[in-house]
Amino acid sequence: MGAGIAQVFAAAGLHVTIFEPVAGVRDTVRCSIAADLRLFERDESLADAVVLTDDLAHAVAGADYVTEAALEKLELKQSIFADLVRHAPATAILASNTSVIPIHRIAAGLPTSDRIIGTHWWNPPGLIPLVEVVQSAGTSLATVAATMNLLVSIGKAPAHVAKDLPGFVANRLQHALWREAIAMVAEGICDAATLDACVKNSFGLRLAVLGPLENADLVGLDLTLDIHKTIIPELDRMDRPNPYLEQQVAQGRLGFKTGAGFRTWSQEEMTALRQRLASHLLQAQRNRAPT
Ligand SMILES: NC(=O)c1ccc[n+]([C@@H]2O[C@H](COP(=O)([O-])OP(=O)(O)OC[C@H]3O[C@@H](n4cnc5c(N)ncnc54)[C@H](O)[C@@H]3O)[C@@H](O)[C@H]2O)c1
């Protein structure tokens, strides 16, 4: 995600420095940014301007704006933010790309929280417009406004999330769907391929132009209420990860990483799916681009 986010800032003509502690990764970052720029039909030489360093203090010394995109581990993020507060200019905005961790947990105990904010980008950052801008109790409105303006200026579609809850908005919605999907497969209602086909061949087709609440308005809230009276009591309400998911992980069925997850995947199938996704998202981006 860090390379993808850097690519978006670099493509917008901004000066970008990346701190990456792992030498093997650092060596590949510029190539991966150039490959993304090429895929997104942008000038790939913009990647050459990105500075790479293994020195965090040097990376952020003159920064106006910092995005942290390290592993999804609270203690690591807390320690990185402590370093950022120490080494970045006192005026710099410090943003975390955490997927689900509330921002106030990352900022806990730091001498400043007004300029600490969540910016939850989506993968791939160059093709998905949304960035959720998460305001925690300590984040100043000036930081929210400056972050929203910056993201608009680089072509993103930021959404201000005014409460700092785990998963923000879009991941809460996405994982509510995944929870029900996993429960149905676990209960043998259908297999994983059938479940995915049900989504892709129905409301999945509409979602890019019709949000769920627009959809409710479209069909009518009276019908929505009647449907909910029957279906809501039936939906999965487990308050922890489904044991079926835990079992898959325990058996080493991690998905693409191991060639099997809910389904088995050959190398060709994985490549084909990745390509279909990239070309679909590229086409969606072209459709969105102003004429
Ligand atoms: N992968 C996604 O689709 C996605 C989407 C949105 C948000 N996120 C979030 O973005 C963050 C990064 O996820 P990812 O999938 O890119 O992970 P990743 O494992 O691909 O990348 C993490 C990078 O952080 C580096 N790193 C390790 N220690 C570090 C340190 N002390 N300081 C700085 N960097 C360090 C690693 O070397 C690695 O290059 C996580 O918080 C994740 O939840 C991921």
Query: What is the radius of gyration computed over CA atoms, rounded to a whole number of angstroms?
Result: 21 Å
Please list the strands of the largest sheet in the order they lie side by side. 3-4-5-6-7
Largest sheet: 5 strands, mixed
Q: What's the CATH architecture name of the largest domain?
A: 3-Layer(aba) Sandwich
Question: Segments where pLDDT lies below 50 for 5+ residues?
Answer: none
CATH topology of the largest domain: Rossmann fold
Helix proportion range: 40-55%
Q: Give the helix tally.
A: 13
| Domain module count | 2
Approximate strand percentage: 5-15%
Shape: globular
- CATH superfamily annotation of the largest domain: NAD(P)-binding Rossmann-like Domain
Can you count the beta strands? 7
Element pattern in H and E: HEHEHEHEHEEHEHHHHHHH
CATH class of the largest domain: Alpha Beta
